[in-house]
Design a protein that fits this description.
The chain has four helices and 15 strands.
């Protein structure tokens, strides 16, 4: 009976044993390496009324240990540091100490350290307001003609950005309009521009500029 128990499904048992031996040798025989990898920093749960300061770091170098097959460029390509901002309630500075809980590493890979090991992030209040549109004419009408009237539609646009930057922004400016060949009333569909890079347009950047030209 013992012999029958040993020989029952002998092929399957032998195959399982051989597979276990192969896996054991592949794991034990695989060298364990240490590598450094640059990871992007991602943020989640940022309150809608706050902004991350423009000086915040966007990359961090992470030191990892694991089997050589797990530390390939392909396996590490999609890794990122993910910081949870759900505890942030207002503007100011907040320091984050990086740990393995901020990463989702492949199985068998361990986190050793990050350089830098801490990130200090500045948060600002999101401000919005309407600003006027400034018409920018770079070349006047030809000789014998002049601008009788000019108007833009819409004449105000909504902007958003850090509180101080928005307070310091008074207007949006149209792209350059050249009137050298214009001798009659004309309309121009142009884009607008905000000089401060921290401020963005909340409304469409396109406006219509109507210029009425008359003879001198």
């Amino acid at each position: 009976m013992i012999w029958q128990a040993l020989t029952h499904n002998f092929g399957w048992k032998l195959g399982s044993l051989l597979l276990s031996v192969v896996l054991w040798f592949s794991i034990v025989g695989e060298p364990v390496l240490v590598t450094t990898h640059a990871m992007p920093i991602l943020y989640k749960n940022l309150p809608p009324n706050l902004l991350i300061g423009s000086d915040a770091a966007d990359l961090v170098r992470v030191e990892l240990r694991g089997p050589s097959s797990k530390l390939t460029s392909a396996n590490l390509a999609d890794l990122a540091v993910l910081l949870d901002l759900s505890t942030i309630s207002g503007p100011g500075e907040r320091t984050f100490t990086l740990s393995d809980g901020d990463l989702h590493l492949p199985q068998g890979v361990t986190f050793l350290r990050a350089v830098p090991s801490q990130l200090r992030v500045r948060f600002g209040r999101l401000e919005k307001k309407d600003v006027g549109v400034q018409i920018r004419i770079t070349e006047p009408p030809p000789s014998g003609y002049h601008v009788v009237k000019q108007e833009v539609t819409p004449d105000h646009l909504k902007i958003a950005g850090p509180e101080l930057a928005v307070q310091q922004t008074d207007s949006a400016q149209t792209d350059a309009i050249d009137l050298r060949a214009v001798t009659d009333s004309s309309e121009f569909h142009v884009s607008t521009f905000i000089a401060n890079p921290q401020v963005r347009l909340e409304s469409s950047p396109m406006v219509t500029v109507k210029v009425i030209i008359g003879k001198n």
